[in-house]
Specification:
alpha/beta; Molybdenum Cofactor Biosythetic Enzyme, Chain A; Alpha-Beta Plaits; Maf protein; 3 domains; five-stranded mixed beta sheet; 13 helices; 17 strands; globular
Length: 414
């Protein structure tokens, strides 16, 4: 093949043009690149049939495979099926068997099925229906004139499994035979994106044929490397070499590889050492507990937590001395340490983890500005550690990055 196959994305939804973050673009692009595709474009379009149809036509001219996400629901503004039919010059037909399956699924959850759900059973002429065990909107995929068009539902819990299970394998067979991609992803935390980028510059220089992406979100950094090779053996060797170079540059910041999250990495480390964890949260208001329990099997090591937002809750539930709060304040290393000790004792865990800070936008002072955060850990044998952080950004950014900092701090202590 003289070039890598090309893919383009069309993300449908007026909300994408009204401030909602498009998370599909990065998720799909990374997986397409990891399969050997060049992603040559992305369009975010409103719930308008003409705009969707025009975006599909443009994308089909530029790419071998086009993925359209969203607009497959049952309501008046779900217009992707009609727009795709217009773009391809094909008809839509009702699939009675598909409509029966949709009705049967919906009847398990509700007493009656609205007639408008029938719109989800209309299929493009010549298209393959993609089953959706996680929702009522089936996907569709059609191959024509050497191109592939895939229509995927918008919600991530429906789109992602469908893409992984049905679409990506088909795209590989149709467009990427003879291409053997080598891809590696390092998951980093405890390091700013700019520092990671600087440390990784020699790796990028050493691999001029590779494509690199560095992303940051919520205080975590992910570094993605991919290149195409001519054989499976060459792909294995290239991946091993890239992995070695990346970890040599930033290994002390790496908490995992591939899809590993910081919370799953912490959980694996706790489980391997037979340790249990409890959390005490103030400024994060439950984010720590939510992230820890999002990991399947977290009951093996997570005991529970206390959201001690108010000072009297810190005193009554965690045993933080009132005189300590009067002298040092709730946002202090002393308070964080006392919270970690208190939750470890109250919940009966091996390790207590605490976070307290000023999330903003108000409440800051000259000595304790918005974004000031303390994390602390208390373990067996009176082992304790604490860290002071100054986090810039709006309230939610401070909360999210504080939770990440606490998880990374615990990861380093275990």
């Amino acid at each position: 093949m003289s070039r890598s196959p090309r893919a383009a994305l069309v993300c449908v939804g007026s909300e994408l043009l009204a401030g909602q973050v498009n998370t599909h673009q990065a998720w799909l692009s990374l997986r397409l690149r990891g399969a050997g595709f060049d992603v040559v474009g992305e369009s975010s379009v409103p719930d308008d049939a003409a705009a969707i149809s025009a975006a599909i036509r443009r994308s089909l001219k530029a790419a071998d495979a086009v993925l359209v996400c969203g607009g497959l629901g049952p309501t008046f503004d779900d217009l992707t099926r009609e727009a795709a039919a217009a773009a391809l010059g094909r008809t839509l037909r009702l699939d009675p068997g598909l409509w029966a399956r949709i009705r049967a699924r919906l009847r398990r959850d509700r007493a009656c099925v609205p007639e408008e759900n029938k719109r989800q059973a209309f299929v493009l002429s010549g298209a393959k229906v993609l089953s959706n065990p996680n929702g009522s909107a089936p996907g569709q995929m059609i191959a024509a004139r050497g191109k592939t068009l895939a229509l995927l539902p918008g919600p991530a819990p429906e789109m992602c499994p469908m893409f992984q299970r049905a679409v990506l394998p088909a795209l590989r067979r149709r467009h990427a035979l003879g291409i053997f991609p080598a891809a590696f992803t390092a998951r980093l935390s405890g390091v700013p994106e700019s520092v990671a980028d600087e440390r990784l510059a020699p790796v990028r220089a050493r691999w001029p044929r590779a494509r690199f992406t560095i992303l940051t979100a919520g205080g975590e950094v992910s570094f993605h490397a991919s290149l195409t090779t001519g054989s499976p053996a060459e792909a294995r060797q290239a991946r091993a070499a890239v992995r070695r170079d990346v970890l040599a540059a930033v290994g002390e910041f790496a908490h995992g590889e591939g899809e590993a999250t910081l919370e799953s990495a912490l959980g694996a480390r706790l489980k391997a050492k037979g340790l249990s964890l409890a959390v005490a949260e103030s400024c994060t208001g439950g984010l720590l507990g939510e992230r820890i329990t999002a990991v399947a099997g977290s009951s093996d090591y997570f005991r529970g937590g206390v959201i001690a937002y108010a000072n009297d809750v810190k005193v009554r539930r965690l045993g933080v001395p009132a005189r300590l709060l009067a002298r040092h304040g709730a946002v202090s290393e002393e308070c964080a340490r006392a919270m970690a000790r208190g939750v470890r004792r109250a919940v009966g865990a091996d390790l207590g983890l605490a976070v307290t800070g000023v999330a903003g936008p108000g409440g800051g002072t000259k000595t304790k500005p918005v974004g000031l955060v303390f994390v602390a850990a208390a373990g067996p044998g009176r082992k304790e550690a604490a860290r002071r952080l100054e986090i810039n950004g709006p309230r939610e950014a401070v909360r999210q990055r504080a939770a990440t900092a606490a998880l990374r701090f615990a990861f380093d202590q275990v």
